[in-house]
Write a structure and sequence with these properties.
The complex is a heterodimer of chains A (about 240) and B (about 120).
Chain A: H1 10-34, H2 40-53, E1 58-59, E2 65-66, H3 71-78, H4 80-98, H5 106-129, H6 137-163, H7 165-168, H8 183-216, H9 227-234
Antiparallel strand pairs in A: 1-2
Helix pairs in contact in A: 1-4, 1-5, 2-3, 2-4, 3-4, 3-5, 3-6, 3-8, 4-5, 5-6, 6-8
Chain B: H1 3-17, H2 20-27, H3 39-46, H4 51-57, H5 77-106
The chains are: A mainly alpha (about 240), B mainly alpha (about 120).
């Protein structure tokens, strides 16, 4: 899902940078309010986990590869804004040091995997686990469902970015200037492989770690600040 | 042992196991991820190399492309696995370093942390 340089035209990657920027800015402010300094190592652990899990390319025999991202797991542990920062750090290091994802596409890749994925996935997690005990089965089920849906929505958004390229920029011969496949090819190709294979991998990884933490140290699971805490912070 | 310590150990185990991410795709004949083809692959798939793509593709020369040393991208799988692990170690170190600096700069200071 790491869009390389050359696959998106300037309009698209420029717009994606512009769309991602406010999320980075707000995430920085939010962390200032919600992240406790003793949670900083957990943020680093989350970013490192996201970095490493993305190195596990899962093969579809005779086909393509894909991987989990870990964004929803981090959101369940530290909240979606911290997940945005952690996954962005992993993606930027991947692009700069390892050429995994283009530098023109850092905005686009962060928008898909560090914004859309953690927020959608965390929303699903909240819906499924609503008001359940922190040790409840609904927590890890919600986390797994969040991972599955979060990764799939991120993949869909990536596919749309690919798919609009031929219509946005092509030469007189009808050849695309950037990513060559239109929406009707890009969307099903990306959607099916993530629905059938990679989403499952993400769901299992996310659900397993959350289930483990429910037994090992439940204090590590994120609890949004209550209204009273928010009021005392505002004061 | 603290749960976070165990998580760090788990992370290191993942780094050591990471070559599975290149060995398994090779074993099952799985090619690139969808939409992450090289110029040659694109040429083969659609019959031409999009002109804008060729201009942008080499904009950035990553020091360790594809988690391998430059020029070693097509080394045997065993050697590639070692550089994959080394890249994982380096990547984790950089990601952890950057996150800690960033986290320290951003995180809320607590009176209990001041000591």
């Amino acid at each position: 899902m790491h869009i390389p340089d050359g696959y998106l035209g300037p309009q698209t990657y420029g717009a994606a940078y512009l769309a991602a920027a406010p999320f980075w800015a707000i995430a920085s402010q939010k962390l200032n309010k919600t992240l406790r300094s003793r949670q900083v190592p957990l943020l680093a652990l989350g970013a490192a986990f996201s970095f490493v899990i993305m190195m596990f390319n899962v093969p579809i025999p005779g086909g393509t590869t894909g991987h989990a991202v870990g964004a929803v797991l981090i959101a369940v542990l530290l909240g979606p804004w911290a997940a945005c920062i952690a996954v962005s750090v992993a993606l930027i290091v991947q692009a700069l040091l390892f050429g995994d994802g283009g530098i023109t596409c850092i905005g686009a890749n962060c928008l898909n995997m560090a914004v859309i994925m953690p927020f959608v996935g965390y929303g699903v997690y909240l819906l499924v686990s609503a008001r359940s005990e922190v040790t409840s089965r609904r927590r890890w089920i919600g986390a797994a469902a969040g991972g599955y849906i979060g990764l799939n929505v991120a993949a869909l958004s990536t596919a749309v970015m690919f798919g609009i390229q031929p219509a946005l920029a092509h030469d007189a011969a009808g050849h695309a200037l950037y990513a060559p496949y239109p929406l009707k090819i890009a969307v099903p190709a990306m959607a099916i492989e993530h629905l059938v294979v990679f989403g499952i991998v993400e769901a299992v990884a996310t659900g397993l770690v959350v289930a483990y933490l429910q037994r090992a140290d439940v204090s590590l699971l994120y609890r949004p600040p209550s209204r009273m805490e928010r009021r005392s912070e505002a004061a | 042992m603290k749960a976070t310590t165990k998580l760090w150990i788990g992370l290191l185990a993942l780094v050591v196991l990471s070559p599975l991410g290149i060995v398994l795709p090779a074993k099952f004949g799985a090619e690139s991820a969808w939409g992450e083809w090289s110029g040659e692959e694109i040429q083969k798939l659609v019959g031409y190399l999009p002109s804008g793509m060729s201009q942008l593709a080499d904009l950035w020369k990553a020091p360790l492309p594809g988690y391998a040393l430059r020029g070693q991208e097509s080394a045997p799988l065993g050697a590639l696995s070692l550089s994959y692990i080394a890249s994982g170690v380096l990547g984790v170190a950089v990601v952890v370093g950057v996150s800690i600096l960033l986290g320290k700069a951003l995180a809320r200071r607590e009176s209990s942390d001041a000591s």
